[in-house]
Amino acid sequence: MRAIRSVPVSLLTLVILMPNARAQEQQLPVVLVQTANPITRSYPGVSLGILGIQTGMTVAQVEAIAAKNDLGKPLETKIHCVFTYNNITARSQEFIVQVEYGHGTNRHLILYFNSPATGNTVSSMRQVIKFPDDPLKQPLQSALKADLIKQYGPPSAPDVALTGGADNFVYYSSTWLFGDKSNLQCHSGFCPSIGSIGLYQQKDYDLSEIHNYFITAFAESARSRGVDFIISSIINTGTPSYQTKTSASSTVTMADFQAAEGDINGVKQQFQNAISKSSSKKK
Description:
Oligomer: single chain
Mean pLDDT: 75
Shape: elongated
Number of domains: 1
């Protein structure tokens, strides 16, 4: 296993507030501890997870399943989080935020982890399967759709077909939403109200040679609209002449927005408590 410092867009969830001022900020180390249990998610008739890996699992649980399935060596990404308020910058310990299997192969699995505040457990995952270039050797697009429905049930909205790219590829998108009001959130296969969760790299204000990773999240936006869990699938069917027969690749993504929101709140609370306690000692 090795750690990498370049961080792609991911579904990790945490809100980091950045100050405009950079002068005389106090650096406050904070060890994040678990304050909430991970959520065990289940829905009647729905088979959640990928290859037996589900949200709420720890790194150790994921690696045990990966070894059983011969997924190869994991590629880990570790980060630390910062939170700045009143010229005090709280900085967490480093922790695993992403684990990849099969990078650069035809089966690429990426797992995203919440912070230690919720046990450093899986909050979302994505699997991309690439099929042979020869369309005659690619699986039937209808068979892939049938397999998805078998696992996840009927989609929350009708499938959407899009054509684009230099090769005029066709993409079929399906979305499944789960929550108290989630059946009202998808329209024509798209769910623009959900937003996205991104991980971005920026330079630290004070330490010019060190890079911190600042995370922005929109899980709270999804939760406010009643979405707890989302599964999305994109089937790339190649050129239009093959769009009813075959598929070039398949991507499945799932994310637990309720777990993400809990992680956001847990980390923010720990940072705020540490800063308040530090400020009190100065008085």
